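Reopening this ticket.

The earlier resolution said the output was attached, but the attachment link was broken on my side. Pasting everything inline this time so it's all in one place.
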Amino acid sequence: MCIFGAGNVAMDAARTAVRLGSEKVSIIYRRTREEMPARIEEVHHAKEEGIEFRMLTSPLAFNGDGNGKVTSVTCQKMKLGEADSSGRPRPVPIPDSQITIPCDLAVIAVGSGANLILTEVTPSMNLNKWGYIIADENTGRTTMKRFWAGGDIVTGQATVILAMGAARKADQRIFTIT
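Inline output:
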C-alpha cells in the first residue's frame, strides 16, 4: 500500500492500514522530513509501527492490471531546489531516476483541493467549478466507475466528522456495487 502525502492525514491513513493488516505500507513524499507538514509525534509513531518513508519521491503514473486494479506506481526521484510560495524548498526532478514501486492500493492524502496528478491522469473525473471532485452525497460514488470520494476533496475544507461520515456512507456502498 502506498500513501501519497506527508501530513497528519497521511500518517493516520498509514497507521490505520497497518492496524487493519496491511503487510507493507509506504509513505511517499516529494520533499524531506524537514518539510513534512505532519506533527513530529505522528511521524514518530508511524515509524514505530513500521511504516516505510520514501522521501524525495514523486508519483508520475499509476499502473494497473487492465481490470481497474493498481499494481504499481511509477515515481520520479527528486532533489530540493529554491523555495516556492509556501517557503519550502521546491522539489526538482532528478533526470533519469524513475523507479517503479509495487502497490496494491494507493491513497492520496494531500491537501484539500483536487490533486493535480489525480485530475491530470483522470480527465474523465468530473470536477465542480472550484476543482473539487463531484460525488454523490449519499454514496460517495464519483462520475468514474469504481471511484469513490469524500471529505475535503469533495466538499472543500470542512470538518473531520463530515469526512468520516462520507467515508462511512461510501464504505457501505463500495463493496455492494460492482
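Reporter confirms the inline version is readable. The first helix runs from residue 8 to 19. The chain has a mean pLDDT of 88.
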